[in-house]
Amino acid sequence: MIIEPKVRGFICTTAHPAGCAQNVKNQIAFVKGKGEFKGPKKVLVLGASTGYGLSSRIAAAFGSRAATIGVGFEKPASGSRTASAGWYNTAAFEQEAQKEGLYAKTLIGDAFSQEMKEKVIDLIRSGLGKVDFVVYSIAAPRRTAPDGNTYSSVLKPIGRAYSDKTIDLKTRAIVPVSVQPASEQEIHDTIKVMGGEDWALWMDALANAGVLEQNARTVAYSYIGPEVTYPLYRSGTIGMAKEDLEATAKKISERLAGISGSAYVSVNKALVTQSSAAIPVVPLYITLLFRLMKEKGIHEDCIAQMDRLFREKLFNLENMPVLDGEGRLRVDDWELRPEIQREIEKNWPAVCTENLEELADIKGYWKDFYNLFGFEVDGVDYSADISPEMAIPSVN
Ligand code: NAD
After folding, report:
1. Do 31 and 24 touch, CB atoms closer than 8 A?
2. What is the pLDDT of residues 227-281, one digit of tens each?
3. From the CB of 74, is ligand 1 less than 6 Å away?
4. Among 8, 20, 76, 127, which residue's CB has the most CB atoms within a 10 Å radius?
5. Claim: this prediction has a pTM higher than 0.85
6. CB of 268 shorter than 6 A to ligand 1
């Protein structure tokens, strides 16, 4: 069949297998182009199918020749319905890994569940013995916790309503946005979903099962961003969850002291992913940011970020993580450069529908958005007939 994009709000309900496969190949080529680095060898990636998690898996496998186990929440094709993009990404990743003799297995399902933790531990035992690095890159709208309750996350300010402007990406117009403050319950529930609790449960489960190597490391991802988005991001409900995640890193490090293990949070750059597209105001900031970073030649995508994180910050030549004053890894350093943020502060109040094309990289945003689902990828023939079926080799 011919597969075309069907965009509904923040997501695209179709995905293109050949386009997703090409994206994965491009990411692999990027990492291989930089040469090998001395990094982890047996890696578990939670949230491995898209965005930062997928790029982490690729950087570890093709930069450090690591065996990888990935976990993702994805759907296979069914009838004429395509699979999700993360499904195709994972199928392509495993195929490329196999070609190079790299161990790669994937479990599809709910990473928040106890059942998945047990399955992963069994797979580590049978396939790798132990792991030396765990990436926690889950971004989810809801979580069923061990208490049996299902919690939902919200993207809201705290304390008072927030009014500013955002971009309507469809009409390319700047429109007002107003978000009411979160209730105490919503703050609590967002921390339950996007805070550190599940990361700590994973690390406890892996440690108790004895499947972590001596000196094992783990990393989870956070975001800070510019002051203009603080009310909705860093000082909002998601920011509270990120603070909880950062505090959890310290607790996990203490618990892993017996094996000299350590847990880190890396603060990453704002990028177009399935998760960030859903955050109000952030897409407008991203379009302004990309324009400036591209102009200055310092724009990075997910794979460039994860490659730099592993190669230069976490597994650098000295094998000494490069941390900020609060113990965090920072690959948002280029985004937060004063010369970039000064321009953002100047452009933010000035940007309107009329000067949008001049100040913001709308074209780049849309290309990235379509690319997430395997569309508009250079070199792919979208007029060719293609089957939506694509097997992930390790998944039945
Ligand atoms: P993403 O939506 O691209 O990826 C999320 C991953 O989580 C996918 O692999 C998905 O399958 C998986 N997942 C979701 N629910 C799951 C479940 N219940 N069980 C198993 N897997 C599940 O998101 P992303 O933007 O790459 O986000 C990853 C992390 O990076 C998040 O913590 C996010 O806050 C952080 N981050 C993102 C940005 C950004 O701009 N996108 C910036 C800094 C930090």
Report:
1. no
2. 999 999 999 999 999 999 999 999 999 999 999 999 999 999 999 987 887 787 8
3. yes
4. 20
5. yes
6. yes
